[in-house]
Backbone:
């Protein structure tokens, strides 16, 4: 089916050695036969993702971006270990196959996992796919309900409780992302000091019921069934997963959610078809999540503002690499406009918030 997500040619400067990775996989993945082919998934601004085909076997390789320091957000071993513990209880995440810390193989640590095939929605629906208003609503409802399911995973039973420290989670997030922004700020970026001060001053208490936090849960990290595209069959990109506050997770997700009535500057940042007729609004998602979980979502302004700020930091960190010539990817040049738009949107929320 033509709407199924496909890898394409590898971007300049992001090539990996075919012979080297082929030799490594022969020692790690049983029963591989046939020629090796490597292509790259074109979207995303974080870790680089490649498709590896050996005969009829399809796998996915993930490695840190060129020029990035290997911190928690780009820690390949951590993501591999999370998937290893999670897959037995949540099989909609990819099954991990091998982790390699030897940078001599492709120039960076990486891991390989089974490929989850299906539709992945990016900025607009792929050619040949249409959603009715009922389908658009259904995928939004399923997206919300799947996040509720992730937040219901028994962290103690999976052994994943050790992956994070719920006590002080919000404080660490606010302080950590504020520090990252100040470090990544370039001369053409907003200072965000008023926003960071508000987040520090209005910080909520620790949640009494911490959960599995995906930390990058959004529509283009969902794998959809080709014949029933409103049905979610896989969840990707667990690189920042941790144990913490579920409302922070939802706030991070909704920072990406550009709805039909958002201003033009935010529409320009839309990366997923969240504006379609029938799609839930952010408030409808918040209300549905609150109803499904019984959690108090009355002060959600805070979590949404944090999500907007965090997204601004991520964009600024990537733009910083482009600004200083550490990556040649020209897509990153426009991210500075996104940083300004996110800061402006967050400050508008702050100005009208009753928190």
Residues:
């Amino acid at each position: 089916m033509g709407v199924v997500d496909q890898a394409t040619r590898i971007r300049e400067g992001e090539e990996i050695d075919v012979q080297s990775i082929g030799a490594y996989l022969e020692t790690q993945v049983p029963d591989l036969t046939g020629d090796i082919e490597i292509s790259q998934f074109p979207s995303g601004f974080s870790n680089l993702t490649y498709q590896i085909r050996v005969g009829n076997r399809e796998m996915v390789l993930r490695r840190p971006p060129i020029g990035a320091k290997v911190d928690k957000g780009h820690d390949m071993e951590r993501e591999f270990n999370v998937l290893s513990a999670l897959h037995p209880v949540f099989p909609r995440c990819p099954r991990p196959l091998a982790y390699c810390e030897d940078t001599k193989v492709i120039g960076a640590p990486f891991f390989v996992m089974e490929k989850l095939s299906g539709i992945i929605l990016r900025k607009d629906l792929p050619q040949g796919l249409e959603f009715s208003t009922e389908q658009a609503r259904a995928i939004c409802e399923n997206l919300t309900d799947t996040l509720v399911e992730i937040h219901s995973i028994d962290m103690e039973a999976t052994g994943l409780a050790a992956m994070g420290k719920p006590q002080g989670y919000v404080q660490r997030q606010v302080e950590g992302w504020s520090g990252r922004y100040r470090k990544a700020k370039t001369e053409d970026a907003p200072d965000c000091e008023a926003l960071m001060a508000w987040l520090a001053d209005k910080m909520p208490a620790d949640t009494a019921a911490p959960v599995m936090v995906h930390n990058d849960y959004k529509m283009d990290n969902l794998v959809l069934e080709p014949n029933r595209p409103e049905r979610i069959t896989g969840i990707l990109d667990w690189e920042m997963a941790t144990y913490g506050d579920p409302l922070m997770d939802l706030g991070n997700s909704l920072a990406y959610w550009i709805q039909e009535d958002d201003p033009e500057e935010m529409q320009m940042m839309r990366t997923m078809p969240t504006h379609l007729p029938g799609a839930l609004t952010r408030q409808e998602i918040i209300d549905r999540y609150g109803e499904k979980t019984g959690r108090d979502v009355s002060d959600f302004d805070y979590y949404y503002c944090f999500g907007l700020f965090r997204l601004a930091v991520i964009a600024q960190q990537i733009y910083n690499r482009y600004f200083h010539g550490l990556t040649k990817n020209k897509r990153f040049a426009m991210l500075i406009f996104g940083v300004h738009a996110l800061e402006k949107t967050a400050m508008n929320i702050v100005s009208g918030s009753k928190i």
